[in-house]
Design brief:
About 25% of the residues lie in helices and about 25% in strands. With about 375 residues, the protein is of the alpha/beta class. Helix 1 (about 20-45) links the parallel strand 1 and strand 2 (about 50).
Length: about 375
């Protein structure tokens, strides 16, 4: 049994175009600090080896200090590290992977399939690299492992599973099943995929360990676990400094919008980057989003507000119609007129709004 850490898609030196220049610099520095947390996790987990599945760097124009920080961190891990370059950090003669002096424990795949046996750990690691920004045919085409008697088989690869039109190594579940691997450590997809099975091969994407925008939401991290011949146990471990969050806030019937925002952000921390989306119904008055921004930013590291409300309508206007909508609203209106309990009245009005939206083919608000 070998103890494994699996990470991918760090995208060090991302531009963070959605932030101010000053905060973008801060976030790039925090990406480098992520490397220290990776070292600590490997030590705390007593990892035997580390698999890094590409796009560690965001592109070919990374800062020299970033490349040095990456090499230093991987060296401090102190156990074998296997890195398979992806489409953003593909291997070529002038890439940092070729020009920088890397620690002895770091093995960088530089092209077609390589096999590294680690009999002292009871395993063998297979890997291949992108050598261009695109890889339009599957690197698993024609792949055949060696006999590897008694050794657990691991693979590290940047790939796009079951995406036949992909230009980024479109591998199939059938190819993974036929690979003979016990565990395929993949990169490219920025969300944790769960641990999947293709035949006897377990495979997973850990996702990126730090979100970079509102298309990369929630906790981000790496995978930790054990791999043995025929048995794989991997778990997700959060590693990010900040989370990107989208918080919907229903402002229907609310006069104090700042209070509504505060309630809607109850799960947000001071480290998070949060987009508050106002939903529900409002009157004819224009919402002052700028005035709400301080209430948002008081509760997170950076925030923004979007308006997706709709104009309030006369909820009961169609209750006299000879239609299913009219019958539905008429029944609820009659119950409302008889109701004296304020909480029940609120529930009936909410039921009318939701039911009307469903009957008219709209969205629940």
């Amino acid at each position: 049994m070998v103890r494994v850490i699996h990470g991918a898609d760090f995208h060090l030196d991302s531009p963070f175009a959605g932030l101010s220049p000053q905060r973008a610099v801060r976030r790039r520095q925090e990406q480098r600090e992520l490397l220290d947390r990776l070292v600590e996790l490997c030590r705390d987990s007593r990892a035997d080896l580390v698999l890094l599945s590409g796009d560690l760097l965001d592109g070919g124009r990374t800062f020299y200090e970033t490349n040095q920080a990456l090499a230093s961190a991987l060296g401090r891990i102190g156990v074998p590290v296997f890195l398979a370059p992806g489409n953003h950090d593909y291997y070529h003669g002038r890439s940092p992977y070729a020009l920088l002096r890397w620690p002895e424990n770091v093995h960088i795949f530089t092209g077609g399939w390589e096999r590294v046996a680690l009999p002292e750990l009871g395993c063998v690691v297979y890997g291949a690299a992108f050598t261009a920004p695109r890889q339009e045919t599957s690197l698993l085409d024609g792949f055949r492992p060696e006999q590897d008697e008694g050794l657990a088989r691991l693979m590290v690869l940047h790939a796009d599973v079951d995406a036949p039109q992909s230009r980024y190594d479109p591998v199939t579940s059938a190819q993974l099943a036929g690979s003979g691997m016990d565990y395929a450590a993949l990169g490219h997809v920025h969300a944790f995929s769960g641990v999947n099975r293709a035949g006897d091969t377990a495979w997973a994407y850990p996702g990126c360990p730090e979100g970079r925008g509102f298309d990369e939401l929630g906790e981000k991290g790496v995978l930790r676990g054990t791999v043995d011949r025929g048995e794989v146990k991997m778990e997700f471990v959060p590693l990010c400094r900040r989370r990107y969050l989208i918080q919907p806030v229903d402002v229907t019937g609310r006069e104090d919008l700042a209070a509504a925002v505060a309630e809607g952000m109850s799960g947000v921390t001071a480290e998070d980057i949060c987009r508050v989306v106002l939903t529900g119904e409002r009157g004819l008055e224009r919402l002052d989003l700028e005035a709400l921004l301080p209430a948002v930013e008081a509760r997170c590291w950076q925030g923004e507000v979007q308006d997706r409300t709709v104009l309030r309508r006369d909820l009961w206007a169609r209750r006299g119609e000879d239609s299913l909508t009219g019958l539905f609203l008429g029944e609820l209106a009659a119950r409302l007129e008889r109701c004296e309990d304020e909480q029940e009245r609120e529930l009936l009005e909410r039921a009318a709004r939701f039911g009307l939206a469903a009957l008219e083919g709209g969205e629940d608000r």
